[in-house]
Amino acid sequence: MPESPEVDALGAFLRSHAVGRRIASVDLVEFRALKTRERPLRELEGRTVSGVRRFGKHLVLDTDGPLLLLSFGRAGWARWSDGPEDPAASSPDAPPVIARVLFDDGAELAVTDTGDWLSLGLSVVDDETTVPAIAKLGPDPLSDAFTPAVLARIVVGRRKRLKALLQEQESLAGIGNAYSDEILFAARLSPLVQAVALDEEEREALYAAIRDVLGSAVEARRDVPPAELKAAKVAAMAVHGRTGEPCPDCGGTVLDVPGSKGGAQYCPERQTGGVPLPE
Hints:
By secondary structure, the chain is of the alpha+beta class. It folds into 2 domains: about 5-135, Alpha-Beta Barrel (N-terminal domain of MutM-like DNA repair proteins); about 150-270, Helicase, Ruva Protein, domain 3 (Orthogonal Bundle). It is built from 8 helices and 10 strands. Strands 1-6-7-5 form a 4-stranded antiparallel β-sheet, with no helix packed on it. A 4-stranded antiparallel β-sheet has the order 2-3-4-8, covered by helices on one side. Strands 9-10 form a two-stranded antiparallel ribbon. Strand 3 (about 60-65) and strand 4 form a beta hairpin. Helix 1 (about 5-15) packs parallel to helix 6. The mean pLDDT is about 95. This is Fpg/Nei family DNA glycosylase.
């Protein structure tokens, strides 16, 4: 799943490659991906890309007309090629293309989805806030406006497990499964503890971990080509996806979070007082 650091890096790439280019056509391969049926993608044809903005795990391509919102979901991503001769555009190992934005100089932005069910969405709008997924987003933890007081308003009194709360886009925008594991590991907090149970010191640790983990990831992904971002993210994980491996801090064994079916991980020594969470 792409999360805010990777989407941020993709946005920076597109700002340097797509801005100023004129859209010649948009080819929709999978019609279910278009979420604004009353606004066809052909409205973008002839428009020039003027900017790229990130909202959580979503990207907006601004033009001199309507906006194109890309919602990546669980398995969506994008691929760039400078022309039809680019091998990346025709590799047999490339993920299925859902739509193609073709520019008048031959460059192409292909949006893809590798999931068992379609999660990628495209919307043609005049104002991104009219899209419910954007309108409901909580504060962005990478923003300067995200302070300890903002986090306190989100967690105090919430009877929800921390891992689930971190992934709740209405509470915090842009954090998914992988970075929620990494944040909780850095904060030395159990993924299953309820937010309401945190004391002030633990809330401070959680805030610092959110800022440090995401901020470091943004810096590390800067200038990484879109095709390499997923591998860079996986390689950087301390506990997520590391079941059975030694903890990089204490050498203990990284375990799966109970009930996650192997999709989430933690270190008992660092996060639950050395006692594994009950199955």
